[in-house]
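ERR on first pass: missing label on line 2. Operator R.T. fixed the label and resubmitted. Corrected input:
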Amino acid sequence: MSDPRDVQPNEAELIAAAQAGQLSAFGSLIGFYQDRLYNLGYRLCGSHDDAAELTQETFLRALKGIGQFQRRSRFYTWMVRIMINLSRDMHDRARRETRHVAAQAHDLLKHSQAAQMARAQNPGARLENRETAEIIQQGIEALDPHLRETLVLREVEQMSYRDIAETLKISEGTVKSRVFRAREALRSVLAPYVEEGR
Amino acid sequence: MMADHEHNACDELAELVSAYFDRQLEPEDIRRVEEHLAGCPECQRKLEHYEAIREAMSRKVSPPVDIADGLMAQVERDQLLSGLDALAAPAPSRPMRFVKALAAAAILVLIVSASVLLIQSGAWSPSFHRGGPIAAQEGEQESEARKLAVVEERVGPPMAAVEDKKDSEVHWALPADGPSEPVPRAPLAMGEDVDGNGPLDGEPIPSELEVQDTEGVTELMRKDELRLGSFAGAPTTQEVTIGIATVWGAVAATQPATPVAEPQDVSPAELPVADRVISVRVPDTASWMYARDHLASTLDGLGLERVAPGEMTTSGPAARQVYALLPRPEGLERRHRTALLVSLAPERLTDLEQVMDQLRSAGAGREAIVSAVSTTTYAGIAAAPSVSSRPALTTTRGVEVAASQPSDEGQVVVLLEVAVGSPTTAPASGPAAEE
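pass 2 clean. output:
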């Protein structure tokens, strides 16, 4: 699914069928959006394992709630909202149980220091795109969850500020502010790696 | 070095630059930002960073497995689990419609899970095993038996209740005494009251095999009745019996001693019969689901292909007639019966032994036992006019299953039956009781 705005052609019919209890219709619905939702989940939580769990749980919640789906928003957007809520829970759980943000921040700091040292040793070096992506992904994971989900909806889902606002139930001004702050946070992580190459 | 006022402008426009990058600004703000950008290398670099971030985040990752597909299979499985859970619950006052739906779920076959195998009737003579702690958990067992009996009272015979009978019209008695020694018996004649649940409403052996939608199944799928979950009851023990019978297919090819006549020339009553029913005891209220799931995973592990898993139901008159072709599982007084169609190549028939062994060992690992084994093979059903003349089965969702000409393609289509009920075979003494 290359275009994130893709909508399943017969979505309305499938939703109606799913709401009438047809499991196969629901299966078709989620099958169509699976890759896209998984990709979103990966950006929200940062690991394939968590993304798979998040995706599956999102499907399950959607299945349980399909009867209440009012079609005020698109089905996919509705699932995105579910996933966002689940990712918050997951983040809270992870923070309680294992690694918390401070630890991640510490890692990022070490990354940053290592990058600066590397730069000092090899001033002309530029990061490969892949490395850049990894650094940014780590930065995303270390972001405040609200900043992260807002930026992810913008960059991964390519949602407009208005759609993000609607999805997250916040104002467009808050969306604008969060996107900006998230970018600046990531820039601060990325800067040590990219300055010399420019 | 940037002048202070330029820095101030950068700070002031910072959010706008970000929104400009997103093309989320009004025209007048766009002009402001572009004017600023034209003279501010710092903010231009910022945009480059934003672009790098976007590029990194735009890289797609894909799920390593088909999550949706796996989930839907699990959901269908859970539906049945929850259906049986509700059935087993002590006298819940559920809406009638739900009860009926659950009845459908109970008999709906292992729709869900498994797959199977089959049999070389010549190689297998009926045999019986018993052992294991049959009596060790007699109290629990009895409790479970009563629960199951209650279930069946409410549901009725697996095939008949859903369509034909009201709950109150179905009455079965619990075994008055404890389980008795299993007694091998000859396979039932076709058309006989094979499951002891009644004479199949007096219906004759099928003239056609056709599985279609039923009210109960339809209702099962209603969203308000869609329940997820599994058994929540206290651990108990119950008997699980899995009988396997070939419904049709190329089995005959592996049984040269059994001539297969032209379809129109063979009636079900003439089909060869062998018997094999495995009974496994597992300390779990969801034991039969466990056995079923285990069997399913085992078969999956063997790479046996399922025929449209989850798309087959055995409810309805035609399915009832199919059941009439199945043998009565030994050692069970009352049971739920479900079935599943699977397809496999004839050479995979030998995997049956492996599957059964694994099932037994898995049961043993759970302190379960294999208390009885018999095998029934209706290898020739493929040749029965009632079956072979049908190009496919029509399921509740209008999906055709078993439509591939199994005989021609060398595929064997097998009906797996799982029956659950209260055991009648546990001896009062002996090895089983001592354990």
